[in-house]
Amino acid sequence: MTTTVLLVDDHPVVRSGLRAVIEAGDALQVVGEAATGEEAITLAGHLRPDVVLCDLRLGSGIDGIRTTVALRALDPAPAVLILTTFDRDAEVLGAIEAGAAGYLLKDVDPEVIVQGIRRAATGDMVLAPDLATRVLKGMRSPLPKLTDREIEVLRHLARGATNKEIARTLFVTEATVKSHLAHIFTKLDVDSRSRAIHVAQETGLI
Amino acid sequence: MTTTVLLVDDHPVVRSGLRAVIEAGDALQVVGEAATGEEAITLAGHLRPDVVLCDLRLGSGIDGIRTTVALRALDPAPAVLILTTFDRDAEVLGAIEAGAAGYLLKDVDPEVIVQGIRRAATGDMVLAPDLATRVLKGMRSPLPKLTDREIEVLRHLARGATNKEIARTLFVTEATVKSHLAHIFTKLDVDSRSRAIHVAQETGLI
DNA sequence: AGCGGTATCAGCCATTTGGCTGATATCTGA
DNA sequence: TCAGATATCAGCCAAATGGCTGATACCGCT
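The joint structure predicted for all components is written out below.
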């Protein structure tokens, strides 16, 4: 029997490409396309696809991880295969934690994608080879968990704000900002704001 | 007569999508695909396409701008249409300066891409609406021109290096690094390293 | 020969940042 | 109800950063 697939990507061109690649064989059938996470959730409810192939970055609206969580909450829940351009550590781990069946980079060959969908449909875990290692490494030394407030401060930091500016924006004192920063630095194992920004961007924390 | 197109993108999936979209009509014909800039230049020399549709980010190897320069140096020179996900100011301007016939974002509808190729083939300039404004603005207040050395320092900055570390890496004194930074700050109109990093990333300088 | 741009370096000084210790209040879950 | 996490704030101090002025040297261009 054919496996049904729902495509989720905000780029029409990519959707076309995926459709062409997936429908080249005859074991897979694309039953729908969505440009946003919201659309994907609605469509998946109606179409009940076996597999949802979902980009992580979905422009405006909810991202791929939140979409994954919502999709996995459906009954029956489709297998969610994340397909994206980047390989930010935090995002890979986040997607797996959210219940994704796997994670593929967009620069792989079409047949890898097709294979991935097949395996995801049978309940297998699917990870791009170079990612598998890092995910396992990530398991051993898990990414630091920042609190919401810390992430908030981190975002301001990344925009180049000074402590004073962050304090004003968040309606707290500079002492508080410094306190948050101290925690952030410890968790990220850095000792300067620039490096904190760098690490945060590298790992996909922001 | 049909317009011939060469696709350049490091993602097979995107190439498939573009091919599907472009060949849906009958006025355009995809005569080749390249995954890298080098490949694109070689292929364009042989295939002599009317238009080259080129991604800016091409993974490893030369980027879209360098590819554009090389393509425009061919005889006959194809029209180069840049198609990318991001809209970094420096890159847009860089592509235009390099001789690109236009710049489209990947999230536009297929027909816009087809239209863009048609117009590029006739020598028209093609710019996504929201980009046109910014390009013109960019003309008025051109992006600051940093020297090679300053860009180098900026890269280290973005990786979170301290002045001392940058000095060591570049085999100069801290005073020199501070001097470069002072110039960078002036040119970018900022007053802190974090903001310099932010501006540099925003505008695509690094 | 001189000018402008670039890269190098120096010293001074005010501000910002980061490390440290410690305190209070709230909330959550065991 | 008590431990732990979180968010808030304070003070002290050393180091890093950034603004300033000015100097030397090299290079390319006129």
